[in-house]
Amino acid sequence: MSSSLPQQYQDLKSSFERRPCDLQRCGQLLDSLKLSLAEAGLLIPQGHHDLGDLTVARDILEIGAFWSIRSQDVPSFERYYAQLQTYYNDYATVLPPSSRRSPVIGLNLIRLLTQNRIADFHTELESLPPKELVGDDPFIKHPVNLERWLMEGSYSKVWNAREEAPAEEYKFFVDSLMGTIRNEIATCEESAYDSLPLKDAATLLFFPNRSDLLNFAQQRGWQIELTAEIIIFSRSVEEKAEIPKRKLIASSLTYARELEQIV
């Protein structure tokens, strides 16, 4: 391993643990450290390596995974998670336990939920040791609960889960999940209502303040009547067109008579 790596590793830990976290410095150090890990064959290790080097390499990749979420870079998180799989699976029995393992796995589970990859979510769950699934590990339990509430349509529980997140990084994915839920609810509102009071729309869409609701409404192209305190849902010409009931009935009767003559 490079002689400069131990010092860079300590610099990374200091920058990562600083409050607030020095994201820019962490990113620079991670780029340099990953190059050193690749040169030492530790980015995706194979065979025998010094246990100390493996532990440091795993810690660097885990910090990289958390840094990715704090930087709101999901593709980067996916790469770090993929690189960590060798450490979590192939070297699990020889390395000391990592306190960041469960949080990283939990973050990946929530990522799969936000991407609507439910099958992959359950595949990941099935790959975990049974004791982790039946235990009270909050980092695993949180995404499992989220998935159940989503399937039940208990969106209020998903919203409240943000404040119950076991790590700050989890809130990023819960916010993303709520964005998807809001759009689904908004689509239903557009189909079910011509208009809604601002207060009711805010409640249905889980907006705690008025300004966020108004910004969302503008993005959806809704009309806002501030005087009347209502939102008017815009619909396309096709949606507004009335169904020609009489023509449909007449056509159906004609079809029925013709069918009767054939029989």
Automatic annotation (TrEMBL):
Protein name as catalogued: PCI domain-containing protein
Pfam families on file: CSN8_PSD8_EIF3K (PF10075)
Keywords carried by this UniProt record: Proteasome
Protein family per UniProt: Belongs to the proteasome subunit S14 family.
Gene3D superfamilies referenced in this protein's UniProt entry, alphabetically: 1.25.40.990
Bilayer-spanning residue ranges: none
Positions in coiled-coil regions: none
PROSITE patterns per record: PCI
Magnesium among keywords: no
Organism annotation: Sistotremastrum niveocremeum HHB9708
InterPro entries to which the protein is assigned, alphabetical: 26S_Psome_Rpn12 (IPR006746), CSN8_PSD8_EIF3K (IPR033464), PCI_dom (IPR000717)
GO cellular component: cytosol; nucleus; proteasome regulatory particle, lid subcomplex
GO biological process: proteasome-mediated ubiquitin-dependent protein catabolic process
Domain PCI as annotated: residue spans: 72-250
